[in-house]
Amino acid sequence: MQTLTNGDRSEPRQELVEYVKRRGWRLCKEYCDKGVSGTKEHRPALDALLDDCRRCKIDVVVVWKFDRFARSLKQLLHALELFRKLGIGFVSCTEAIDTSLPHGEMLFQIIGAIAQRERSLIVERVRAGLQHARSQGRRLGRPPLRVLKPKDVAALRKERARTKPRFGKLRLTQITPDLIEDFKDERLAQGAGPATINRDLAVLRRMLKLAERRRFIARSPFAEAELLEERSMRRKPHIVTYEEEERILQVADPHIHALVVTQLETGMRPNRETLMMKWEDVDLANDMIWVRESKTRAGIRNIPLSARCKAELLAWRNRLGPEFSPYVLPNMRNPKQPLKDIRRAWAKALKLAGIPYF
Questions:
Q1: How confident is the model over 107-145, as pLDDT tens digits?
Q2: Strand runs (DSSP E) across 190-278, as ranges?
Q3: Domain ranges, residue 99
Q4: Number of folded domains in the chain?
């Protein structure tokens, strides 16, 4: 026999003990949560009680009131359903509820029916949510593994070949920060950029981090040997002049033409905003563009359309409108996807315009 109380009130406890004696039960243990709010789903004494129930150490649970046991209906139903499955009785003294008696057994059946109905509702909601997600074109489940192209495999093997001669035959404990610094200096002397060197060291850095986590080594040497700064070596922004703009627009492909005008007139970011823009985000009637996805929260905004940008988008829509793809700049091979890479077309336009690549 088990007793659960909440708080330190002696009067309810004494009445519970007397009730147990009148029923001829043996009091084995008391569970009392002192100073813990009854609204919490997890409480030390309550969790201990449920654990003992699962270990079949309990025949009947006696409480003073329902609210001494659980303050929410969900928590109460969950516990009573557990008791029903395990064949454990439940008694609430003040509410005159005793599941060991016929009317109490009826309560268990009602609780079981309610719990079964709740599970059915959860299943229906989950299935409806999955069906809605499929109708929206969302892919469910884990993302697919990346299929490496032959050139990607060759690049990975090439990067591995750069670190293997220096670190391949060393034990983990023999790799020191000085060796990593020497490797970086050697690669810089060979003309490699900081980003390339950091990629060369990425696998080694990850391996040493796992070794530290599993305590194969006391500390990763990368704690003292930091990666190279890449921002200082990146290309600086290029301010397009009016002359360069005219030269680019004269030789650019149609999609690059539309992209350049949109970017110059709206100031949108190229990858996350312009290339991901859909026709439903373009309101030509009210001269407005809605940026729904951006790199930052502040980037989600409305942008007014200039007359030049509106004319460009109207011309582009007549050529490839929403009937062809939901995206303003679609992938020509797969119109359901946006255009993701314009580097080759951009380099071609700059070359034809006689402008250095930027």
A1: 766 765 676 677 778 888 888 888 888 888 777 777 666
A2: none
A3: 2-111
A4: 3
